[in-house]
């Protein structure tokens, strides 16, 4: 199988082919979505919410991200794998960022890292890129800054924040990032950014004109059924499938129907 590369992602933008991206945090799920043909797998720090049950992405550690990433990498044969550098592992200074990126690349075998922010973390991005590690940017509603925002509402609706976002996107492109996630911003702004920069934009809650789309796998599969923001399309109801299957199993155990003769030695 031909592996996805940053060059191919760039070529996809140039020929107008949309890029598909989903999160994964473990071997079994990563194997399924890689086989289905997703272009990019994100080992997101949303693992903090989805896997560990934290309210925010802030608590997850670099070691925990490396554990998730190495599980995913063992499953993947085609997709390009990007790993979030978690909160507190790159904001301090650029050598901390480089050290974290190198740990992720060496210890998990991932292909790339993602960091949240623009001008504030420019030095860290440049330093990581200088080591030959591809960097994906992330602008808009960056969840590691949730306590600064104080709300999960749409970002950059006002002109000042929109202008900073455009400037940050251009800066990330100039620094050498290969793609940028745009999270929860007006569709019109995402369209403008996608037109004005040459690297691919990957949207989540950022409208149809981004060069690609990303969703959290558990959300789009309906595993986490209470979470239903406007931007989410639910492609399956695995929550119900799992609950029903487990209910059926419990019933069969209680009634003595399971295991039967064929299922016994
Ligand atoms: O951690 C994550 O899942 C993400 C995506 C929502 C872009 O950063
Ligand atoms: Na993330």
UniProtKB/TrEMBL annotation:
Residues at the catalytic site: 183 (proton acceptor)
Principal location: cytoplasm
Cofactor (UniProt): Mg(2+)
Alphabetical keyword list: Cytoplasm, Magnesium, Metal-binding, Pantothenate biosynthesis, Transferase
Matches recorded under CDD domains: KPHMT-like (cd06557)
Pathway the protein contributes to: Cofactor biosynthesis; (R)-pantothenate biosynthesis; (R)-pantoate from 3-methyl-2-oxobutanoate: step 1/2
Cofactor note: Binds 1 Mg(2+) ion per subunit.
EC number: 2.1.2.11
Pfam families named in the record: Pantoate_transf
Catalysed reactions listed for this entry: (6R)-5,10-methylene-5,6,7,8-tetrahydrofolate + 3-methyl-2-oxobutanoate + H2O = 2-dehydropantoate + (6S)-5,6,7,8-tetrahydrofolate
Compartments reported by the entry: Cytoplasm
Annotated positions binding 3-methyl-2-oxobutanoate: 45-46, 84, 114
Residues that hold Mg(2+) according to the record: 45, 84, 116
Highest taxon, organism lineage: Bacteria
EC supergroup of this enzyme: transferase
Function: Catalyzes the reversible reaction in which hydroxymethyl group from 5,10-methylenetetrahydrofolate is transferred onto alpha-ketoisovalerate to form ketopantoate.
Protein family according to the UniProt entry: Belongs to the PanB family.
Complex and partners: Homodecamer; pentamer of dimers.
Protein name in the entry: 3-methyl-2-oxobutanoate hydroxymethyltransferase
Native organism: Roseivirga thermotolerans
């Amino acid at each position: 199988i031909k592996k996805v590369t940053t060059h191919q992602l760039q070529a996809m933008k140039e020929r107008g082919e949309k890029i598909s991206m989903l999160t994964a945090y473990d071997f079994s799920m990563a194997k399924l979505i890689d086989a289905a043909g997703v272009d990019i797998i994100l080992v997101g720090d949303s693992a903090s919410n989805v896997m560990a049950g934290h309210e925010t992405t802030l608590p997850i550690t670099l070691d925990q991200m490396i554990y998730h990433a190495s599980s995913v990498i063992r499953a993947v044969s085609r997709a390009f794998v990007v790993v979030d550098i978690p909160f507190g592992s790159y904001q301090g200074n650029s050598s901390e960022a480089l050290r974290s990126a190198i740990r992720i690349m060496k210890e998990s075998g991932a292909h790339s890292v993602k960091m949240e922010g623009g001008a504030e973390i420019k030095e860290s991005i440049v330093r990581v890129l200088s080591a030959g590690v591809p960097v994906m940017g992330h602008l808009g509603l960056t969840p590691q800054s949730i306590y600064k925002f104080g709300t999960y509402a749409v970002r950059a609706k006002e002109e000042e924040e929109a202008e900073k976002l455009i400037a940050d996107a251009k800066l990330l492109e100039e620094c050498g990032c290969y793609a940028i996630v745009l999270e929860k911003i007006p569709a019109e702004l995402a369209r403008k950014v996608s037109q004005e920069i040459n690297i691919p934009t990957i949207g989540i809650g950022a409208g149809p004109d981004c060069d690609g789309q990303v969703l959290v796998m558990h959300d789009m599969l309906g595993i986490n059924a209470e979470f239903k923001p406007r931007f989410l399309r639910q492609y399956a109801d695995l929550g119900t499938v799992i609950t029903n299957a487990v209910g059926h199993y419990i019933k069969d155990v209680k009634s003595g129907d399971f295991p039967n003769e064929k299922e016994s030695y």
